[in-house]
Amino acid sequence: MSSTHARQPLAERMRPSSLEEFVGQRHLLAQGKLLSSALSRGRLPSLILWGPPGCGKTTLARILSDEVGAQLAPLSAVSGGVKDIRQAVEQAGDLRRMLGQTTVLFVDEIHRFNKAQQDALLPHVEQGTVTLIGATTENPSFEVNAALLSRCRTLVLEALDDQAITSLLRQALVAPSRGLGLPDDALSDDALGALLNVAEGDARAALNTLELAATFAAARGSHTIEHPDVEEAAQQRVIRYDKAGDAHYNTVSAFIKSMRGSDPDAAVYYMVRMLEGGEDPLFVLRRMVIFASEDIGNADPGALRVALDAAEAFRFMGMPEGVLPMTQAVIYLACAPKSNSALTTYAAARKALQHSGNLPLPKHLLNAPTKLMANLGHGRGYKYPHNFSGNYVAGESYLPEDLQGQRFYQPGDNEVIPRPPGLDPDAEARRKAAQPEGPSPNPYHKNAT
């Protein structure tokens, strides 16, 4: 490793220098997409690159500039100002007049520029003196002036997935000059999982933590980077949680069973354990929506809306604030009365269908849009329930003939929806008899004292 490389952080040494080396963002770089088409024409529009830290915004700007043969003029909005903008624009104008070369003005963290500073960029972008590439972690709709935003194409970059981060870590581990020059097995599976959890899609964080973890491993005389080395490098406890292994399935099982058992403390604990272990919050939210129908159902029909609202709120808020509606919903679901009749009713109806096959439909339920169908008896004898007392036809049957009298739906004791008049007249009496007198034994239920 050269002395220059040795002084640079691993993330900087491993920075890709071409599109072939660039990992991720295929939705922007694939054939036929905006960037691919622009590069094929050799002309780059002004861009706003919006994405989380470590997803490749700076690297992509450098590569795009090289691809179109432009001079890159980097500028940080944290430390730069109008004076720096003017200087960069003057140099770009000189290059254009003297050499015919275009300049890409790359403004990192462009959202840090105030309105006056952003306005200073506007005429030079309009005149084509520079091609602007602004990078931001904030929503440009709120942080970039509308006039400037309208003259740029906004591209949304995504956090790198575990597969992409793993690929980068493996490359950095074994690369002899730019990387650590270690054997491929010098990183344990536990340590890799911990690095993925620490990174949370941030390639820079993953690589720099790997470099420091390798230092700790070497200091204790080991040739293998282990889980404790990553914890020491990250200066935080990294939950051992394999999103594709036993820890994943066991923890989500404990989460669901805790909600089913009406224990909000345990349910929230397991939700936190999954999230801190790097689980996708949308996976947890999907399990909550399923639970609202499978285990609560019509004992509290509003539970499904609570779970869906939590998912929508999370998509709107993102992390970290998005954990608040998630927690709110988990508490509600755990404390809600329970019924699994949606699950058992579907299973019973499906079993009957599999056993009996596609039985003929009752003729009085069939449509009769033509005279021929009416002559065949379609719709004959159908009784319109709204014409009868209570909007119910006593003794009427709607199942196929071979299934008449079968009951698929058995109301749960907690269900709050009205019972149809013909549905097991003793069900309500049995439900009341099954209800314990006095307050609920569950201290979280609303009728508890």
Automatic annotation (TrEMBL):
Keyword Ribosomal protein set for record: no
InterPro entries: AAA+_ATPase (IPR003593), AAA_assoc_2 (IPR032423), AAA_ATPase_RarA/MGS1/WRNIP1 (IPR051314), DNA_pol3_clamp-load_cplx_C (IPR008921), MgsA_C (IPR021886), P-loop_NTPase (IPR027417), RuvB-like_N (IPR008824)
SUPFAM superfamilies recorded: P-loop containing nucleoside triphosphate hydrolases, post-AAA+ oligomerization domain-like
Residues covered by the AAA+ ATPase domain: 43-160
Annotated segments matching region Disordered: 406-449
Keyword ATP-binding on entry: yes
Single annotated GO MF: single-stranded DNA helicase activity
One Gene Ontology biological process: DNA synthesis involved in DNA repair
UniProt keyword annotations, A-Z: ATP-binding, DNA replication, Nucleotide-binding
Membership in a protein family: Belongs to the AAA ATPase family. RarA/MGS1/WRNIP1 subfamily.
Function description: DNA-dependent ATPase that plays important roles in cellular responses to stalled DNA replication processes.
Protein name, as recorded: AAA family ATPase
